[in-house]
Design goal:
By secondary structure, this protein is α+β, with helices and mostly antiparallel strands. The chain is about 45% helix and about 15% strand.
């Protein structure tokens, strides 16, 4: 029987932030502020979730000249299911940084 892996507290915090508006595109900086996760923790989680099919990613063109494109993220259908399952488990209920 395959072992089901449960998300880390950091991943659960990120899933909670993404699940608050599951169809919206989110910037990394916005997710960092919402979760309290630093970039060295946040971006590896985002990369892993995208690689595993739980997140869609895309580049947005800058809204002003001279600004770089920005990477944005949103949950896929599978990602929304992962978020629901992970957040339904009492042991993964994250404390959100304020």
């Amino acid at each position: 029987m395959a072992r089901t892996r449960h998300p880390s507290p950091q991943t659960a915090r990120l899933l909670l932030a993404l699940a608050a508006a599951p169809n919206a595109w989110h910037y990394g900086y916005e997710l960092s502020r919402a979760t309290g996760l630093r970039s060295g923790t946040l971006y590896p989680i985002l990369i892993r979730l995208a690689r595993d099919g739980y997140l869609e990613t895309r580049w947005l063109d800058p809204d002003r000249p001279g600004r770089p494109p920005r990477h944005v993220y949103r949950l896929t259908g599978t990602g929304r299911e992962l978020a629901r399952n992970a957040l339904a488990r009492p042991s993964t209920q994250p404390a959100v940084a304020r």
